[in-house]
Amino acid sequence: MCLADTGTRMAAAFAACRFRWRAPWCARGFAMASHDDDDFRVKPAAPKSRGGSGSQRFISQVLKEVSKAAAKRSGKGAARPANTFGAGRVAATVAGKRLGANARRVIIKSRFVVLRRASSNSVALHLRYIERDGVTRDGQKGQAYGNDTDAADLEAFQERGQGDRHQFRFIVSPEDGMELDDLKGFTRQLMRRVEIDLETRLDWVAVDHWDTDNPHTHIVLNGRTASKENLVISPDYMAHGMRMRAIEIASEWLGPRTEAEMRQSLLREVDQQRLTSLDRALIRQADTDGIDLTGNPSDRQRQNVLRARLQQLEGMRLAARVDANRWKLQPGMAATLSAMGDREGALDTMRRALKCQQRELMVHDADGVNAAPVIGRIAGKGLADELNDLGYLVVDGIDGRAHYLRLPAGSDLSGLPISAVVEAKPQGREKAVDRNILAVSKDGIYSTANHQAQLEQAKVRDSKAAVEIHVRRLEALRRVGAVERLADGIWKIPADLMQKAKQHDLRRTVGRVIELRSHLPIEQQVRAIGATWLDRNLVADGGAVNQGFGAQVLDAMQSRAEFLIELGLAERRGQHVVLARDLLATLRDRELATEGKLLQNQTARVYRPLREGQQVSGVYSRSIQLTSGRFALLDDGLGFSLVPWKPIVESRLGQQVSAMIRGQAVNWQLRGRQISR
Predict the structure, then answer these.
(1) pTM for this one?
(2) Contact criterion met (CB below 8 Å) for 2 and 99
(3) How far is 558 from 80, CA to CA, in rounded Å?
């Protein structure tokens, strides 16, 4: 550790730690008073350890005293007082002091995660994601490693972090990462220096990713020190010190950048449609009169690069020329360039996922409010923001276009396999059930009896089940105060029901709701036994267009119809195919009967098929993914039943639950709460 730049402060720190000292500090050393009380006697001796968990090494005491001596951050931030809390606050002031302008460049993104505010499975999801498939040099599954192992146990790491108040996550990306032969060695050396700076052993795991143009490393650091205290890292060290240590190591390993490398690095940024280091330099240089490039003739080369970037920004209408040497930057330029970079990154991701298939590319906003539903196959998935766990899907839609969908933080992508069929439902759209409730209501009163009578008069096949769907919606709205129940089957409906229902839906979910329609690719659905997504499209005459993935869907639907004819569940009449009555229920029951027999042989328990209106109870032991969908296995000790699964049931794994089948709907009873599907 080099403390040469703190000169007299270091000497003062030694005096404070080793001598009995009463004189006040001065700006450049000691101020000796003439009074005899200020005399001192030197007593040379080795520093003594007082033992115990609170003892500190001598150098730790020195660094603390240096910090008290008003240490400041270097560079442009020197005028701002250094942070006075957290480990590494002193190291942040000295890290990178000897680095020149030709030092290697490293980007470190950091995130401080308060675990009690995060979701219960956020740590597991993040660890699973960084170790995902396709991130190694040869496209294999990533392997976590640690300080002294090449195969870290992530479950054991997660257990060690249970009870921690917080966790740190870093992404370390050396600009010249492709030239680093040993990225693991680089990461380990960096974390050893971090341990020295923070004065404690650290519990961390890392995974190297080679799936982008710039190799980078994900580091997850548990939030306790070696002495089991909360690990508090200085904000200055998080923002500055750790990056400087990484730059020191990269410069030591690869040597300083040459003039040619520095020039090429800047020239590559000139025509980029994203926020670059040149843009940040221009923003810092700008004043009320704009940017003047007439000065500083000694750095003519850099001035020419900045001039070229300004000309590029001028063409993008993000800068305006005042005269030959002066420009004005448009307000919000940085935000616009950042958004352009995000969009360009999304388009590149879509092109890679589609593997050169020609599609119209659509990039959707994150909120998804009032957007049209998107149905199609998953062509790609991942994290748009790896640090904050913000996911994305590339969906090859049945409308012939490809869609880039941003997902909310913490979305679990593991349950959405590539080539599966999904529907992305936007929030904030009016629901048909709410419109029906308003239409059926008279003078602000909804009656189940009147509604069922109207449906029977209209010859609706299952009027009772249709009314129950509306009642379930009314119950959900009643719980949030949007409607009032006056008596059994009687509800008071406000005139602004649609607005209140929309606000309720927006509060429940941020962004789009992704629903898995089939885990099978359409090619595997053609001859599958069970109620497939293709069957539902045949019944509902789904809106696929004859181009792109939509054309593939239409071909698969024709092949599926031929297979149904083979099974005796459809017949051809001229140019049309007529489907059997209750086709979906018949296909589902056939698959459940086959699966039930297999499970019966495996478990030695009796399979009990469900019938319309029957209630079943048992312990929810596990879920099973079938062609017809996902089903929950309820075990009553002697036999079991398979019931259509719902996400909320997963929290009751191993507990007693009840369910009742009504047509295509399922009513779940969970500890007194009725959950309908």
Answers:
(1) 0.71
(2) no
(3) 70
